[in-house]
Automatic annotation (TrEMBL):
Taxonomic lineage from the root: Bacteria, Pseudomonadati, Bacteroidota, Cytophagia, Cytophagales
EC number(s) per entry: 5.2.1.8
Record keyword Isomerase present: yes
Gene Ontology MF: a single term: peptidyl-prolyl cis-trans isomerase activity
Keyword flag Protein transport: no
Organism: Dyadobacter pollutisoli
Keyword line: Isomerase, Rotamase, Signal
Domain PpiC, residue spans: 176-276, 279-376
Protein's name in the database: Peptidylprolyl isomerase
First-tier enzyme category under EC: isomerase
Coiled coil: none
Source species, domain of life: Bacteria
Length: 456
């Protein structure tokens, strides 16, 4: 079994649907003959999945693997899911919802608004999320299974040196120029006018509920919390400390059946209805309205905050990493001292070529190593507008790979190989625990090293 097939199995299913949704807006586009071509226990693989994956490679201008390879990737994915069921491996709904919201945020960023998405696909946001949610959940389970199988694999410096020394000197790769870039991000502030508008909308909904309209129905119609709206704003039981303080404080101040005043949190503006309390848990519904970060966003405070941080950093009164950790609104990079990581490698070094984010590439083109930029505009993944300052931490010259400069990359390769060896061993054992059937038309595919459905 090839290592890259295992990695493909980890990612390919969910992204094939997600990127097909955002690529051209053809939400209603049909697919070829939708029939079952393989089965792994109670999980089925459709011909449309295989075709969609194959066509997505071509749409992105990449060379598509053979369909047999893609089928094997799908089967590996389903094997992980089947074994997860056997071993009772699950993921929390909140984890799935968080990932789903991030992907929907990316779509909103691409299309400009939820309304534009609905118009492009002829489907409601809820329907689009339902289509994607199953894939996202399966993906999270696959990732958890892989962590369970290979998460304890470790490597030593001697293993990295041994790997490097095993590469013939004339075969050492050429490493292009790489840079380390840090940023500190501050979101824009919603204008008073927009806040007042959202508050008034929620007060109107509160008045309607007090007059007898069903709160759950109002939440289904108006709430912008896409995860709970379809359930009438129902958030189920939550333990104390699970919700943001503003929400929890307002909810716990209510009696069962009461409605809150308008509550502002980092997620937007809430109207809360307490259902009941049970020991250290409470059960509430809410209606959430979010500010439109493409309209009515004031960047004055963000720019002032970044200017102040920039001055302190330049005076060496404050270290950039500390400033990012304590102040950046991009929490993903804040924990790494503000360093922007390569999404493919997870490392803090970015290849200085056409693969880099164009906005970042052109920003540092006029900077020198050690420079701090002035505040520049930025768009977070959830679509919200922000400002950021950039720190040009370092730049390496192009060179032939060596153990000193490229240890992190080499260690990552060694760790990946070792983890995938563990996965391969697991797959060999797991084949006997699940039922796999492949349709005769793919009998020539040596899936998992076997020739046909009857061999599995």
């Amino acid at each position: 079994m090839k290592i890259n097939k295992i990695i493909a199995a980890q990612l390919i299913t969910v992204f094939s649907l997600f990127f097909s949704l955002i690529s051209n807006g053809q939400g209603q586009q049909g697919v070829s003959l939708d029939k079952i071509i393989a089965r792994v226990d109670n999980h089925y693989i459709l011909n449309s999945e295989l075709e969609e994956m194959y066509n997505q490679y071509k749409a992105e201008g990449r060379t598509a693997p053979e369909k047999c390879q893609l089928l094997e990737s799908l089967i590996i994915n389903k094997m992980l899911l089947a074994k997860a069921e056997i071993d009772s491996v699950t993921v929390e709904d909140k984890e799935v919802d968080g990932e789903l919201d991030a992907k929907m945020g990316y779509m909103i960023q691409r299309f400009g608004s939820e309304k534009n998405i609905v118009e492009a696909y002829g489907k409601s946001i809820d329907n689009l999320k339902t289509e994607l949610r199953t894939q996202v959940k399966e993906q999270k389970i696959v990732e958890k299974m892989q962590r369970t199988i290979s998460g304890n694999v470790k490597i030593t410096p001697s293993e990295v040196r041994k790997f490097f020394n095993s590469i013939p000197k004339d075969s050492l790769p050429y490493i292009p120029s790489e840079v380390e870039i840090g940023h500190i991000v501050k979101k824009g502030t919603v204008t008073r006018e927009q806040k007042d508008k959202l508050r008034q909308q929620l007060l109107d909904l509160k008045h309607r509920a007090e007059k007898g309209e069903d709160f759950a129905t109002l939440a289904q119609i108006y709430s912008e919390d896409l995860g709970s709206a379809k359930n009438g704003g129902d958030l189920n039981f939550a333990k104390r400390g699970a919700m943001v303080p503003e929400f929890e404080g307002a909810a716990l101040a209510l009696k069962p059946g009461e409605l809150s005043d308008v509550v502002e949190s980092q997620f937007g503006f809430h109207l809360i209805k307490l259902i009941e309390t049970r020991g250290a848990e409470y059960h509430a519904r809410h209606i959430l309205l979010r500010p439109d970060y493409n309209k009515g966003t004031d960047m004055t405070q963000a720019i002032r905050a970044l200017d102040s941080l920039r001055t302190l950093i330049k005076m060496d009164t404050l270290k950039f990493a500390k400033a990012a950790l304590d102040n950046s609104d991009d929490k993903e990079t804040a924990e790494s001292g503000g360093l922007i990581q390569d999404r493919n490698t997870g490392l803090g070094k970015l290849t200085l070529d056409a693969s880099m984010d164009p906005a970042l590439y052109f920003a540092i083109d006029t900077m020198k190593v050690g420079d701090l930029s002035q505040p520049v505009t930025y768009r977070l993944e959830d679509g919200s507008s922000a400002m950021r300052i950039l720190w040009y931490k370092s730049k390496s010259e192009p060179h032939t790979a060596n153990l000193h400069d490229d240890y992190e990359k080499l260690a990552q390769i060694v760790l990946s190989n070792k983890r995938n060896n563990a996965l391969e061993e697991w797959f060999k054992k797991a084949q006997g625990d699940v039922f796999i059937s492949i349709e005769p038309e793919y009998k020539n595919c040596k899936v998992l090293g076997l020739a046909s459905a009857n061999d599995i």
